[in-house]
Design a protein that fits this description.
Elements (H helix, E strand, L loop, with lengths): L1 E7 L5 H9 L2 E7 L7 E6 H4 L2 H8 L4 E5 L4 E12 L6 E8 L1
Parallel strand pairs: 1-4, 2-6
Antiparallel strand pairs: 1-3, 2-3, 4-5, 5-6
Amino acid sequence: MLTIKTNLRVYKKKSATRRLRKQNKCPAIIYSKGDEPNISIMLNQNNMLHPDIKTQLYKNNIILLFIEEYKQTIEVKVQEIQYHPFKPKLIHIDFARV
């Protein structure tokens, strides 16, 4: 299984996500089941565009996200990936808990 290190996002507004993208980070969210809250995270852009990771994202495999602030891993599947229209960059990723 693929394991990706992530960090929590504190600021979730439009200006904060623009700053993240300028710092070569990709905003993402983990949608949870039931009463659990959704988790906003940020990923490293360079790691996510690596060919090995990119193919794993599209195969609908289970991915482990290690959140450094929680010191735990969460099993997720990719729900949606948004790319920039003409640059090789990610805009946003949606994950769903398994």
